[in-house]
Amino acid sequence: MSPVWAEILDKINHTYRFKLAKQKDGPGPSDQSSFYHKKRPVLAFFTGVHDDYNRSTDDFWRLNYPTQQNIVKFIRDVVLEIEHRGEKLAFTKAESQHQRGKGRSKFKVTLGVVPDYAFAGKGLHLDVVKENRPAHKAGLQNGDVIIQLGTVKLNNIYDYMAALGMFKPGNKVALVFVRDGKEITTEVLLEE
Asked: Do 15 and 76 reside in the same domain of the chain?
C-alpha cells in the first residue's frame, strides 16, 4: 500500500476512464504478497473473472484485445508516473483480515461460487454461480449479493471465508442474499 496510489490512479485514469474499484487489501492472494511483507508499496490490477477463469477452457480467442491493449497502456502510464516522481513511495500497512481479528480461516465446505473481487459494496457479490453446486441448487444466480451465511453477516469476502470455516459438509445453513434490491432468505446444503 501507498498513500499516493489513489492520487496516481485517478490522475492516469482521467485519460482512460476505466471504472476502478480501489481496494486496500494489502498482501492479497497473489504475487504482490512477498513485496508487501517486505514493506514495499504494492499495487495489483485485476479485471475480474468469468466462467472459464483459471480453467483449461480459457483460451486466447476469449481475449478482448482492444481493451487489453488499453489496460496495458494504463498500467504503463502508472509506472511512468511513479518514475517521473523520482521519489521513493511511502509504504503504509493495509487493514487486513488479520488486523480485523478474523485471521485466515480453513474451511471444508463450498457454495460453488466465484466472488466478484472488484466489488466494493457490502456483502459477497457473486460473479459466477456454478451449475449443480450448493448455491445454484439453493436458487442463487450470477449477480446476487450474499449478506448473511448462518448467523454471520457478510460485509466482505473475509467475513465469507470466516463463515465457511464454521461449517462441515452436509450442514444446512440459512443464507440471505439480495437480488434486484430485495432480500431473499433460503437454505443451502453445504458440500465438500
From this structure: yes
> Is residue 30 domain-resident?
yes
> Bigger pLDDT: 114 or 123?
123
**Nearest alpha carbon to residue 47 among 118, 142, 114:** 118
Which residues 6+ apart lie within 8 Å of 74 measured at CB? Answer: 12, 13, 16, 18
**Which pTM value belongs to this model?**
0.63
The pLDDT of 98-106, averaged and rounded, is 47
Tell whether 181 and 119 lie within a shared domain. Answer: yes
Chain mean position to CA 104: 16
Mode of pairing for the β-strands spanning 172-179 and 182-189: antiparallel
Which domain, by its residues, includes 19?
A: 5-85
Q: Could you tell me if 119 and 174 lie in one domain? A: yes
179, part of any domain: yes
Looking at 41, 67, 85, the residue that finishes a domain is: 85
Average pLDDT, the chain: 87
| Number of domains observed in the structure of the chain | 2
pLDDT number for residue 96: 52
Q: In this structure, what are the phi and psi dihedrals at residue 187, rounded to the nearest 5 degrees?
A: -125, 140
Which three three-digit cell numbers place residue 183? 432480500
Provide the residue type at 163 as one letter: A
How many other CB atoms sit within 10 Å of the CB of residue 114? Answer: 18
Cβ contact 177:144 at 8 Å: yes
